[in-house]
Each structure stands twice: as structure tokens, then as C-alpha cells.
């Protein structure tokens, strides 16, 4: 007597089952983007993240394109228009016209740990719906970004060994629960991929792109790097790290406030600053032109200054 057909998933081990389930969940919502504009064409990937046709991708995938076509794993396609792009975070939002597959669920990259399983879904080399798996091999990496004369460091970039190839940019990086925790952005070398994190800061950027088509940022003129606090300050504040000022841009708000190279930033706006994201999450539109109290330690003494951020101006896409 013939047996009941076996579900292919029954033959998979735990690791394979997890990867296959994530792939089955995410792949339908990842599109292959073919963009076009006056300055040429481009290809990459994008992820449906709302039920009304908004897709998330990389700014560098779009370049200066105005629109194009999104093709999905089920063979359907839809024209899209560019809603907004932010080269300084390498994120962009487009909107497809007509029906799109169900959206993915966005997660929180701040909960990732090194060694955790991640799955990358994209369209490398024009091969739609390609899936690779690996682990988080590093957290807190930095990636330089530039738009016109404005430059910025994208902080808390996720490093993974999931294989990425040209065309993966703009695709999804998901955890074992199928939550999208990053947008794949670059191939940094053999066996090394990078992804823009999905966290509180980037969610604000995405929301601003959807609502306004651009991101207004405040500018201080500081170049910083995370640094441990002296033992006595740890005892006094309960804070273990701050931001060491590597450089202060001449004539910038930070320079006018009296900040110096070598200062160790402890708080900004009354909030502890433990990493670059702690400062960058304050540098949005509401901070422009408003006094920002900053506390640093300098030569063993606490120093309070008041800076007034200005708007960061960059060139149009």
C-alpha cells in the first residue's frame, strides 16, 4: 500500500529546516529592481515592507534613477517610482504601482549577537530569489558614505559571512525567525558581506523617507570613535564607554562650542553617549538650531558645553 507522500521538510535537519523556512517566508517579498533614469540603468534587490507597496532598498542601487520595474519571485512585475533616497545611510524607499506580495516583518538588529544564524535573500547576478546562509561574524562595523560634499560614517553595520554577490544589494538579511534585521549593502571581500542594520535610528530614516522623501539631519562637526571610560568615571557614572573626539571640523558648531580633539563625550542632551549611534540618533531635524548640552571629560575634569547643531546640507541625488 502506498504511503502518504512525505513533506520534504521532514527530511531536513534542524539547521536546514530553519534556513528553508526563512527562505520560504522572505523570498516572495524580495524583488529584483531594474531602475532607469537619465544617467543610465541599474539593478539590485528590494524588500516589500508595507502592505501598500513600499519597498526598501539601498540608495546606491538606485543612483539617480526616477523609477523602473520590480520583478518578484512568482514571475509578476510592477512599475515603481522612487519615493526618497538617503545616500548617507545608503537606504532608499520606492513604491510599486499595483499589487505586491505580503510585506516582511522588520526586526531589531540591536538584539543580534555574533555567531547568530542569518539568511540573505536577493537577486545576485540576475538570479532571482537566491538564498544564502551564514552567521553574524561582526557587529558595530563602520561604513563610510558620501553625498556631494557631505560625508558620514554609517555605524553599527552588520558583518556576515553569508555569500553576497553583485545584485544582492538592497536584499533582505533575516534572522532565524524570519525577521528582516538588515538590508544587504556591500560585498567587502571574499566571504565578507555587510548590511545596513534595522534599528531605532534607521527606522526613523525610513519613516522620514516615506513621509517626506528625504532626511533632514543636524550637524555638529565631530569625528569620534568609541572609547572606554577611566575606572573612576565608571564608578561614578555607571557608564563604561563614551566617544573619543578624534577631530573637530573648523568653524563647525562643535568648534564654536569649545569641543577639542581628545575630549571624551559622556552625555549629549542629558542622555549617556556610549557609542556613535547614541549621538547620531539625536542628529535629526528637531535638533537643528536648538541648544544641545554636551558633557565631556578633559584632562580628568568634567566640562559642560552648549552646542547648537545646524542643518547638514548635501547635494541632491
Report on the structure:
The chain is mainly beta and 317 residues long. 15% of the residues lie in helices and 44% in strands. The chain has six helices and 21 strands. The chain has helices spanning 14-26, 59-62, 200-212, 231-237, 253-257, 276-280; strands spanning 30-37, 40-48, 54-57, 67-71, 77-86, 91-96, 105-106, 117-122, 130-147, 150-160, 172-174, 179-189, 192-197, 218-219, 222-228, 241-248, 264-268, 271-272, 292-298, 301-307, 310-311. Strands 1-2-3-6-5-4 form a six-stranded antiparallel beta barrel. It has a six-stranded antiparallel beta barrel with strand order 8-9-10-13-12-11. Strands 15, 16, 17, 18, 19 and 20 form a six-stranded antiparallel β-sheet that branches. The longest helix is centred in the N-terminal third of the chain and has 13 residues, at 14-26. The model has no long low-confidence stretch (mean pLDDT 87).
Mean pLDDT: 87
Q: What is the string of helix and strand elements?
A: HEEEHEEEEEEEEEEHEEHEHEEHEEE
Rg over C-alpha atoms, rounded to the nearest angstrom:
22 Å
Low-confidence stretches: none
**Total helical elements:** 6
Q: Characterize the largest beta sheet: strand count, sense, and whether it forms a barrel.
A: 6 strands, antiparallel, barrel
End-to-end separation in angstroms reads 66 Å
Shape: globular
Could you tell me the number of beta strands? 21
Q: Strand order of the main beta sheet, please?
A: 1-2-3-6-5-4
Helix/strand-derived class?
Answer: mainly beta
Percent helix: 10-25%
Oligomer: single chain
Relative strand content: 35-45%
